Amino acid sequence: MIRLTNTLLATPVLRLRQTAMAALVAGAALLPLAGWAQGSAPAVMVAQPASSFSAAVATDWMQLDLLLVQQTPGFSPPVAARALGYLGLTLYESMVPGMPQYRSLSGQLNELESLPWAQPDEPLHWPTVANAAMAAMSRMMFSNASAENKAKIDQLERNIPIKWERDFDPATVTPDITNRSETFGRLMAMAIMTWARTDGGHEAWGPLRRSRQNYVPPSGPGKWSPTPPAFAPALLPWWGEVRPFVLKSAAVCEAPPPPPYSEDPQSVLYKEAVEVYKVAKQATQEQRQFALYWADDPLKTPTPAGHWAYIANDVLKQRKADLAQAAQTYVQLNMAMADAFIAGWRTKYLTNVLRPVTYVQLLIDSNWTPELMPTPPFPDYPSGHSVQSSAASGVLSQLFGADTAFTDNAHNDRGWGPRTFKSFKAAANEAALSRMYGGIHYRNAVVGGQVQGECVAQQVLALKLKR
Fold first, then answer.
1. Which residues are registered as beta bridge partners of 223?
2. Are 36 and 43 in contact (CB under 8 A)?
3. 262: domain CATH number?
4. Is residue 203 part of a domain?
5. Domain count, the chain
6. Which CA distances in Å does 283 have to 268, 289, 292, 296?
7. pTM (predicted TM-score)
8. d(Cα 85, Cα 191) in Å, to the nearest integer?
9. Are residues 148 and 243 in the same domain?
10. Is residue 467 part of a domain?
């Protein structure tokens, strides 16, 4: 729960207070910034809506945040998805007072009961609000970034008003409006970060969890154990306990149960292990390309969630979206991906299914290890890529259309793109199957993950964003 201090709320410079969503609409219809509300009520100056401005501020910040995800230590896929979730929510909540048909998500997200609101009689400039809010949240979310990357945050915040002068017209954006807008954006970022610090996943890379005992995987036939070549300990075994954004609990979206463990050559598990073994050893050039393209390794890429955020960024640019559309896209997409990792991780450590490399070495070929990529250090079921990609594609299909073709430029800098897909679902299906082609997941983990991810998408899309 957010409790904003009386000091913050009473500060004369801020003149911000929590109020009902109806306050903005009750003030007057939104008019140009230099205009005045008409009618019998006292004349008040009101701001242009967020939809009057381009999405450029939002897409520039998302582009930098994806670089920060890639280059900041500790941002494994679940941690990265969480960070993007809070960044998307910060953008949306800082814009929603300027989106008269939309409502705040406070009261709908878990334990988020209140957030700051803007005075309807004090106009704000929404690109300035967005710039300040995203800069503040980026600094707090990537507090362990390198000095060079922290400087990039400062530089982007300074340069955006110059780069996008059309959205920052000095003839209408007065110093008073700029100061008030920056204050509101920073206050929103602080309020959301206060809530973020209570979710159980904050600073997952740091020493915060010294009180937790070391995770000991359960033993027994079919249970996960560390895998070659590094035999690394389990990654984030408690992540399934992190508070989701939207799901009432991580158990709301269950994956179907995996097939039972069996060493019988006629069993489902044995046959699927053979399938992984054969396809990994005899993968076609196309299958190898799929496996490497969707690997999205941390510290080399912005991780799987960052890959889909990159796709969304490009679609927004291509469609010349406005600032309100960008805010809606990022809040739904990024929260869906964050909740997908929480739900998927809970299932992974409940089922504790052994990885294909372990099964194959025990029963089929004791010398085999996947050639294309090492097996990640956590249980097999379900495939995290499948859960997260299906959640992402479900949201993007609803926002932009199920038959939307798009070009993915996420890995152009690595020489692997651009690649064009006929739909978001087609891309998600390829991402999911890529993990089997890489030799690190059974087919049942792919299919089960897709079911779970589709459930997460539907839960997020059921939020009441509009009035």
1. 353
2. yes
3. 1.10.606.20
4. no
5. 2
6. 21, 9, 12, 19
7. 0.90
8. 15
9. no
10. no
Burial 117-150 (b: 16+ CB within 10 A, else e): bbbbbbbbbbbbbbbbbbbbbbbbbbeebeeebb
Q: Residue 250: give the domain boundaries.
A: 219-461
80 in Cβ contact with 142 (< 8 Å): no
> At which residue do the structure tokens 């140009």 appear?
32
- Are residue 404 and residue 269 in the same domain, yes or no? yes
Q: Output the 3-class SS for 296-352.
A: CCECCECHHHHHHHHHHHHHHHHCCCEHHHHHHHHHHHHHHHHHHHHHHHHHHHHHC
Residue 77 Cα to chain centre, angstroms:
10
Residue 299 neighbours by CB distance under 10 Å: 14
Helices of type H across 72-146 = 77-95, 126-141
CATH number at residue 33: 1.20.144
- Where are the alpha helices (H) located in 144-224, listed in sequence order? 147-163, 175-196
Q: Select from 163, 196, 229 the last residue of a domain.
A: 196
Per-residue burial over 53-90, b = 16 or more CB atoms within 10 Å of its CB, e = otherwise: bbbbbbbbbbbbbbbbbbbbeebbbbbbbbbbbbbbbb
- Give the position of tokens 């990529």: 373
Q: What CA–CA distance (Å, rounded) separates 331 from 220?
A: 41
Cα–Cα distance between 465 and 330 in angstroms, integer?
13
Which residue matches tokens 């050039």?
285
Q: Rounded to an integer, what distance in angstroms lies between the CA atom of residue 114 and that of residue 4?
A: 9
Domain annotation covers residue 28: yes
Q: Which of 377, 335, 380, 332 is nearest to 356 (CA)?
A: 380
Per-residue tens of pLDDT for the chain, all 467 residues:
333 333 333 333 333 333 333 333 333 222 233 222 222 222 234 479 999 999 999 999 999 999 999 999 999 999 999 999 999 999 999 999 999 999 999 999 999 999 999 988 889 999 999 999 999 999 999 999 999 999 999 999 999 999 999 999 988 899 999 999 999 999 999 999 999 999 999 867 554 455 567 889 999 999 999 999 999 999 999 999 999 999 999 999 999 999 999 999 999 999 999 999 999 999 999 999 999 999 999 999 999 999 999 999 999 999 999 999 999 999 999 999 999 999 999 999 999 999 999 999 999 999 999 999 999 999 999 999 999 999 999 999 999 999 999 999 999 998 988 999 999 999 999 999 999 999 999 999 999 999 999 999 999 999 999 99
Task: Compute the distance between CA of residue 446 and CA of residue 387 in angstroms, rounded to an integer.
Answer: 8
| DSSP string covering 356-398 | HHHHHHHHT-TT---SSSPPPSS--SS-HHHHHHHHHHHHHHH
Nearest to 456 by CA among 207, 246, 297: 246
